[in-house]
Amino acid sequence: MNAGLRLPTVLVVDDEVRSQDAMRRTLEEDFVVLTASGADDARTQLERHEVNVILCDQRMPGLTGVVFLKEVRERWPDIVRIVISGYTDSEDIIAGINDAGIYQYILKPWVPDHLLATVRNAAEAQTLQQETARLDLELRTATPVLRQRAAHKLERARRTFGFDRIERAAGSPMDSVCEMAARVARYDLSVLVLGESGTGKELLARAIHYASPRANGAFVVENCAAIPETLLESELFGHKRGAFTGAYEDHIGLFQRADGGTVFLDEIGETSPAFQVRLLRVLQEGEVRPVGATRAVPVDVRVIAATHRDLEQRVREGLFREDLYYRIAGATFTVPPLRERVGDIEPIARRVVDEVGIELGRPGASLTDEAMACLMGYPWPGNIRELRNELARALALSDSERIEAQSLSQRVLHGQAGLTATASAAALPASGTLAERLDAIEAMVLRETLLRHRWNKTRAAKELGLSRVGLRGKMVRFGLEG
Question: Where is the signal peptide, in residue numbers (predicted)?
Fold first, then answer.
């Protein structure tokens, strides 16, 4: 997420507070989330704020979701409208789905990752539609100057999601990954992105899309592990009315919506062999057959797939089709985990703090040297996603705009302390004078104690039998405080 860009705004309309809170928690990392308990409250929000996407529950006191969304279409036609319902409400929704211009309806109980991906796609579809309409208008009526401006706008959009958006330090292992991905982006090859969860595989996929000739097309995302297989086929390939229970109307799948663009299939390693057969056919024939349809529909998409699994191993185990593996792995890139690129932690952390600070209404937030030292020493099993959550929590709990070490969680401090103590013990000099060896041991004890006490100097000094001034002097001597 770029700190300089306005986050898309989502309005959640639901009369149940718990449902509002659940959707807010799911969406708030990527969107500005507004809430309303009914139609009247929602109208007030729409009159006061610029809203990109509206999520509306079907069953509300007074107006139903579909009836209210029909009004929204008439008064605010640019807003993407999504309705949430149970199967029992589907007939009511279908009866008014065309009049309301509903982008998609989500069945209860909804899955967080699926909800997030749907809203992301809706917001991006709106952005692309508006930008395309503006560019088309300018190009059709343009003077040479206006044509140049339109071209510059398109270039800015491509730079926004470029490879330089992937934060990293000079000499990072990500440099070679991004360099090779930028070369491949120009060609219409399928791409497979490997890496642990939270490493930023989707960021790399977006950069590839926006560096490709398909940059004007849609970039749609589906997490293959987030929804049941039957719904996954419907989401990707679409379905015809009556194809299965609850299919009360034709549904256009993401492959058709991404025609001319890119489909990003996250966690493809979790799919079943039966689904893999259908996906392979789509990739080979360049067409999709919606569930229950008798005819196939041609589509022109580029597929970028990602997984944290070892797909070659799953092929050997018979859990993943070999022919599909070679079809999606036209080019393969591995995003290394954060623990293998420790140098990237500092620039990523500083950027995250900038972004989170703006989101929380605390611009100008920063990290102390002690806090940064703790972040650099922790192995981050959850990678960038865990780092972001940690920093958001720390900033929310901090009393100032500077995140101190003591604001970090015990998990990070204890994990870092254990790691530091083990590493320090292993690194004790095997030779040297007695004074040099004692200094090394003293530095190790000081650092471990400070980390265990969350860099609280008063507590650390008390445990070590030192005055606060004495502790500060030793910290300076051993380079433990910048």
Answer: none
Work out the number of other CB atoms within 10 angstroms of the CB of residue 310: 13
> Do the domains 9-112 and 161-336 sit in the same CATH topology, yes or no?
yes
DSSP, res 188: -
Consecutive sets of 10 residues in the chain, 482 residues long: mean pLDDT of each? 63 92 90 92 90 90 85 83 68 58 78 84 74 58 61 65 87 93 93 94 93 87 83 85 73 88 94 92 91 88 95 94 94 94 92 86 86 85 90 85 86 60 47 73 77 76 86 80 50
Rounded-to-integer distance, Cα 386 and Cα 200, Å: 11
Distance CA(469)–CA(477), nearest Å, equals: 12
* Tokens describing residue 429: 């000099």
Distances (CA, A) of 227 to 9, 104, 341: 25, 16, 32
pLDDT for residue 305: 97
Strands (E), 319-462: 331-334, 366-367, 402-403
Retrieve residue 356's tokens.
Answer: 């989170």
pLDDT of residue 293: 84
Residue 387: the pLDDT is 92
Fold of domain 346-477: Helicase, Ruva Protein; domain 3 (1.10.8)
Helical ranges in 286-344 per DSSP H = 311-316, 322-328
- What is the distance between the alpha carbons of residues 327 and 285, in angstroms, rounded to a whole number? 12
Please state, in angstroms and rounded to a whole number, the distance separating the CA atoms of residues 139 and 146.
Answer: 7
Instruction: State the amino acid at position 310 in one-letter form.
Output: D
Q: What is the 3-state secondary structure (H, E, C) of 234-267?
A: HHHHCECCCCCCCCCCCECCHHHHCCCCEEEEEC
Is the distance from CB of 321 to CB of 272 less than 8 angstroms? no
Q: What are phi and psi of 121, to 5 degrees?
A: -60, -40
What number of CA atoms fall less than 13 Å from residue 68's CA on the CB side?
28
Is the distance from CB of 197 to CB of 308 less than 8 angstroms? yes
Segments making up each domain of the chain, as ranges: 9-112, 161-336, 346-477
Fold type of domain 161-336: Rossmann fold (3.40.50)
Say which DSSP state 222 is in. Answer: E
